[in-house]
Write a structure and sequence with these properties.
Layout: H1 2-23, H2 34-47, H3 54-58, H4 64-69, H5 97-102, H6 111-153, H7 167-179, H8 196-218, H9 223-252, H10 257-278, H11 289-302, H12 304-313, H13 320-343, H14 360-389
Bound molecules: zinc ion.
Region (Disordered): 1-65
Binding site for Zn(2+): 216, 361, 365
Pfam family, one: HlyIII
Length: 396
């Protein structure tokens, strides 16, 4: 770890020295060898190569081993890796799987892309586990409450046989009596609503974040793997968008399976169409960046329909504004993230300045995690609301 960070410092200091070289390029004072500097300038004009790598320019033809591990510039990249011309340096190209794996602890222009979504994955894994462990506790709590009903309402109707029936069996009998009771003045026990749509969303988010991290870490290996990983990455984004729809649609329209089916079916069909479309290799290229963003956005905009529908249906629900605020925050995070992804701001303003930190893709990654967290917050409110309300007094 310590060597990787010192390496990062070296890279950063090298970058600042290069900026100096660029600003005072006519003097070429940073180079000890004037002739070498002239050669570099010639290379710059010949290949549009604004600042080459110190190591590679001094000994280009020898030392194969160190060259394999050296970071290269945009202009030295194989064609398939030339995705963002505003990021000039610190690329890994054609690295072995092992080298790519261990580069997770090295500074290069994908380090923060990997870590932003890797930490996001760990965060969602933690949230999933916390909720998963909580379920039996909630179930216990609910059954504890429901047990109190039989005790209070049937306290005077004592059954002698109860003394001989195990506790669990008694509860089952009591619950059955309550459920089939025609006395509606006694509030029926509420069971917690099913959690699967919530876990579908968490699983979808984890899949997206993990596949994105893997894609950023290993796509430098080969053209073949690069194409495969990019497809998985796009499929991950699509799956995250689709699964995000499950909790709100399921819980809002829980008491009207018709709309549940229409909306969940609609978004799933859109998602499948998007995945199939993106499987075409030509659509994975830089040229179709905007097209991909539009596909993802159209799935997001699809959500406006059930959101407006759900808001009208639950117009008097006190939780309506809270969930809308959460979902609006999610929309702002996702849309601004997409904006960074498409425009490639800020690196387009200062090419070469944000190679290691602060470029658009890293900002996009952070906004995706924040958007997913906002949606997670909204989902908790939906769950709590549906747990407490059930399907009573709902006019959908
Ligand atoms: Zn990414």
């Amino acid at each position: 770890m310590s060597t990787s960070f010192s390496e990062g410092v070296v890279i950063l200091s090298r970058r600042s020295s290069k900026r100096k070289t660029k600003s005072s390029s006519s003097l070429s004072s940073s180079s000890s060898d004037h002739h070498q500097a002239e050669m570099d300038m010639k290379k710059l004009h010949d290949h549009g190569h604004s600042h080459g790598h110190d190591k590679s320019k001094s000994n280009n033809n020898n030392n194969n081993k160190s060259k394999r591990r050296a970071l290269v510039s945009f202009w030295e990249l194989p064609e398939y890796m030339k995705d963002n011309e505003f990021i000039h340096n610190y690329y890994r190209a054609n690295w072995s799987i092992k080298e790519a794996l261990f580069s997770v602890f090295r500074w290069h222009n994908e380090t923060l892309n990997v870590w932003t979504h890797l930490l996001g994955f760990v965060l969602f894994l933690g949230l999933s586990m916390a909720n998963f462990i909580q379920i039996p506790q909630i179930a216990d709590l609910i059954s504890l409450i429901t047990r109190s009903f039989p005790i209070s309402s049937y306290a005077n109707v004592s059954h002698n046989s109860e003394d001989f029936i195990p506790q669990g069996t008694t509860n089952l009998i009591d619950l059955k009596q309550i459920n089939t009771s025609s006395e509606m003045d006694i509030a029926p026990p509420l069971t917690p609503v099913t959690r699967w749509p919530f876990f579908v969303f968490l699983a979808g988010s984890m899949f997206c974040l993990l596949s994105s991290s893997i894609c950023h870490l290993f796509s430098c290996h080969s053209h073949n793997l690069n194409i495969k990983l990019l497809r998985i990455d796009y499929a991950g984004i699509t799956i995250m968008i689709i699964t995000s729809f499950f909790p709100p649609i399921y819980y809002i329209f829980q008491c009207d399976s018709h709309w549940q089916f229409v909306y969940l079916g609609g978004i799933t069909a859109m998602g499948i169409f998007t995945i199939v479309t993106l499987l075409s290799p030509s659509l994975s290229t830089a040229k179709f960046r905007t097209f991909r963003a539009l596909l993802f956005c159209s799935m997001g905009f699809f959500g406006i329909v059930p959101a407006v529908h759900g808001s009208f249906v639950n117009w008097d629900n006190p939780k309506r504004d809270v969930t809308l605020a959460y979902e609006a925050a999610m929309a702002v995070f996702y849309l601004s993230g997409t904006g960074f992804y498409v425009t490639r701001v800020p690196e387009r303003w200062r090419p070469g300045w944000f190679d290691l930190a602060g470029h658009s893709h890293q900002i996009f990654h952070v906004l995706v995690v924040l958007g997913a967290l906002a949606h997670y917050g909204a989902t908790l409110v939906f769950l709590e609301w549906r747990d407490s309300v059930g399907c009573l007094n709902i006019n959908v």
